[in-house]
Amino acid sequence: MENQTLMARKSALPPKRFYGRGLPGVGLKTLQGMLIVIEGPDGAGRSTQVEFLKAWLESKGHAIVDVGLRRSNLVSKKLGEILQGNVLNPVTFSLFYATDFADQLENIIIPALKAGFVVLADRYIYTLMARDIVRGADRSWVESLYGMALVPDAVFYLKINPKQLVERNFMKNATLNFWESGMDVGLSRDMFDSFIRYQKLMQAEFMRMHGVYGFNIVDANRSARRVSMELQAKIESLMGDVD
Fold it and tell me: Domain 2-235: what homologous superfamily?
């Protein structure tokens, strides 16, 4: 009886669709699960919130699959090695990440949705698109490149002050990441200054995309517990109370 209730609530969600042409041979009506995306920069608490949501949803009886950037079996290892060298040009950077995403979409996300799982994505195409556009890529080309992507059932963007991001990154890693600081973009020779400028550009692009894709904006300057409570309330409203 409970499974029937869950299926009825899921069926009340908008039908699954792709942003563009999508992947060939995928029957959208067979995708019975839910795709929930948590977006935001490193240091915003994304991974922590995904873990909180995973535990909470599992306690509600949902089967969960979590995905994220650089997790595909096809290219993630090689991409990680290349990133260490800080030598990728913008086009190669874009295509590597698009390949990583496409592999996970075809081999993890879609099969999980067919099986009725809730898929939690620790970032999705929006970070990839914003990165490419900030690095000078043509917007229409980027949007076409990710036309293969499924439209999520919900997207939550964790918005945080860039200066607070600096503090959180130093607390976590004692340094700033070359790519997350936009050092390849040429904004500044000083990594701290470049980080602030790059994160402001990324946040501005996310705010622009918010108007296009309709993200849920969540204030991530607060404690992880308060952010988690807001996310749970919004997801519960979307899914229905399954206690």
Answer: P-loop containing nucleotide triphosphate hydrolases (3.40.50.300)
